[in-house]
Design a protein that fits this description.
Elements: H1 5-19, H2 26-37, H3 42-45, E1 55-57, E2 60-62, H4 64-80, H5 84-95, H6 100-121, H7 127-136
Antiparallel strand pairs: 1-2
Helix pairs in contact: 1-2, 2-4, 4-5, 4-6, 5-6, 6-7
Amino acid sequence: MEFDKESQVRILQVAAGREEGKDFEELDARIAHIMDLHPEFDEIWKLGELATHPQEIGGQIVNPFVHTVLHVIVDKQILTGQLEYVEVTYSRLKEQGMDDHNALHVIIAVYADLHFGSFRQGKPFDTLDYESQLVALSFEKADSED
């Protein structure tokens, strides 16, 4: 999935189909699942093309389209094992006590920083840098002793 018009149309179609209770297959099912993880976007998807622009959600500026595409990209990396270190990092973060969705968001943040940094500089995505940053990630659950 790319940050392009075709992906925008597809995501908006999935959002509309979700509203209608439609069943999806493969990529569209993954997109619908990601939308299920983000109910805070539900009303925004109803805005159509405006949902592809940054919006204020919970006091933060978020682009639901970009966020969803990033989720799809990292989700695919984990599911396919194409970049084995992504799945290893995801599993490690969960084993350390991070919940599934937050583990995804931590990996997404690393990917997004590298992707958009490379894009702005006109350079290719640096998979070695991605791997080294993911290998360095860890999570320590805070003790809740009062």
